[in-house]
From TrEMBL:
Name recorded for this polypeptide: Glycerate kinase
NCBIfam families assigned: glycerate kinase (TIGR00045)
InterPro entries documented for this protein: Glyc_kinase_flavodox-like_fold, Glycerate_kinase, Glycerate_kinase_RE-like, Glycerate_kinase_sf
Lineage of the species this protein comes from: Bacteria, Bacillati, Bacillota, Bacilli, Lactobacillales
Keyword Cell cycle recorded: no
GO process terms (BP): organic acid phosphorylation
UniProt keyword list: Kinase, Transferase
Assigned protein family: Belongs to the glycerate kinase type-1 family.
GO molecular function terms attached to this record: glycerate kinase activity
Organism of origin: Levilactobacillus suantsaii
């Protein structure tokens, strides 16, 4: 019997990951009724990562009130995988949606992220995964450090205001007051980007505009991040700031590195936590996808990580996308066997969003038919 594993990401604004999986599965079974279909939700460190992991492997959901990106109280959900392992999301505490519609890129802070880490420490966690995605902040993790006990002051020896814009007035950073439990804790940042902290590919330049930063703000935020790098009391700050992913979540990746943490591919780490390799083992076809596939999709996003994992087990793959920006050949070069664009070329986006269930069902059917045809040709 043919076994198909469907592990797609959400189509933002149109369907959740669970819904996408269900629509694709309906298409597969419509054209191949006897097929065994298994569905798995994927994540790469952005919003939904905690829920994905806890639902897949068990554990406990926790909720802690923290400061949101603009200083407002936020009820942030996180999870305990076991007695000593926690997983949190930057987006749950200081996510972009928590700052809308009044985006404030200069004053948004990661203080709430540090509060979540502290809450996990209070529960006995000695390994803490931190999802780095969908943040409203560009403060290099300075707020997070402050929440964990770092002394961050201006040139007048006064406590520095929260927010990336204040880093231009940074005068000193001290780690003497850091929570001592951090020395016995493994912090693992989960990132889906490879950007450094500063520069033309850095946190402010690349991600600042989507957080509301205009040209002058971007320059100010970039300069502030460079100043933070200069004052953080670690000997290898410059090298750490160039680590792939240091610019994730507005530089929070760098903040974790400064605290002694490490960065990992969010998609690959979630695959390991949710035992995705075992799910794929022995499958005849893997179908993945996301709403839009572009150059960034090929650099750490969850669907491509699924494809790469399937390739290690010689399982053919199909990728379903609402739209594709760029060269389809690059997607095939990344290991995808079949690319299915679910939206007709002449269909307006608004119409496509309304017809998402039908379009994805048809895409699932097309992916399955293509697989069956290729299998028959190989006989």
């Amino acid at each position: 019997m043919t076994r198909v594993v469907i592990a797609a990401d959400s189509f933002k604004g149109s369907a959740t990951a669970n819904e996408v999986n269900a629509y694709l599965a309906a298409g597969v079974t419509r054209v191949a009724p006897g097929t065994t279909v298994e569905k798995a939700v994927i994540a790469d460190g952005g919003a939904g990562t905690v829920k994905t992991v806890i639902n897949a492997v068990g554990g406990q959901f926790k909720t802690t009130q923290v400061l949101g990106p603009l200083g407002q109280p936020v009820e942030a959900q996180w999870g305990l995988l076991d007695a000593h392992t926690a997983i949190i999301e930057v987006s749950a505490a200081v996510g972009l949606t928590l700052a809308q519609p009044n985006l404030a890129p200069v004053s948004s802070s990661t203080f709430g992220v540090g509060q979540l880490i502290s809450a996990a420490l209070d529960q006995g966690a000695t390994t803490i995964y931190v999802g780095l995605g969908d943040s409203a902040t560009t403060d290099g993790g300075a707020g997070m450090m402050a929440a964990l006990g770092a002394g961050i002051i201006d040139s007048n020896q006064q406590k520095l205001d929260l927010g990336g814009g204040s880093l231009m007035r940074l005068g000193h950073v001290s780690f003497l007051g850091l929570d001592p439990r951090l020395k016995q804790t493994t912090l693992i940042g989960l990132t889906d980007v490879t950007n450094p902290l500063t520069g033309p590919e850095g946190a402010a330049a690349v991600f600042g505009p989507q957080k509301g930063a205009e040209h002058e703000m971007v320059a100010r935020l970039n300069q502030g991040l460079a100043r933070l790098r200069t004052f953080v009391p670690i000997p290898n700050a410059l090298a750490l700031s160039r680590t792939p992913g240091a610019g994730a979540a507005g530089g929070t990746g760098f903040g974790l590195l400064a605290l002694g943490g490490q960065l990992q591919s969010g998609a690959q780490a979630v695959q390991q936590l949710t035992h995705m390799a075992q799910r794929i083992n022995g499958a005849d076809l893997v179908i993945t996808g996301e709403g839009r596939v572009d150059g960034q999709s090929l650099r750490g996003k969850a669907p491509i990580a699924v494809v790469q994992l399937a390739r290690t087990q010689n399982v053919p793959t199909a990728l379903v996308a609402g739209s594709v920006l760029g060269d389809v050949a690059a997607i095939h070069a990344a290991g995808v066997d079949d690319v299915v664009v679910s939206t007709p070329a002449d269909m307006p986006v608004a119409d496509a969003m309304r017809q998402t269930p039908a379009l994805l069902t048809s895409a699932g059917a097309k992916a399955m038919l293509t697989y069956l045809a290729s299998r028959d040709d190989a006989k």
